[in-house]
Amino acid sequence: MTTRRLLLVNGPNLNLLGTREPEIYGHETLTDVERIVTDAAAARGFEVSAVQSNHEGVLIDAIHAARADCAGIVINPGGLTHTSVVLRDALSGVALPVAEVHISDVYAREEFRHHSYVRDVAVVHVIGEGVCGYARATSLLIDVIVGAAEGRGRGIP
Ligand code: CA2
Question: Options 3.10.580.10, 3.60.130.10, 3.40.50.970, 3.40.50.9100; which CATH number does 5-149 get?
Answer without folding.
Answer: 3.40.50.9100
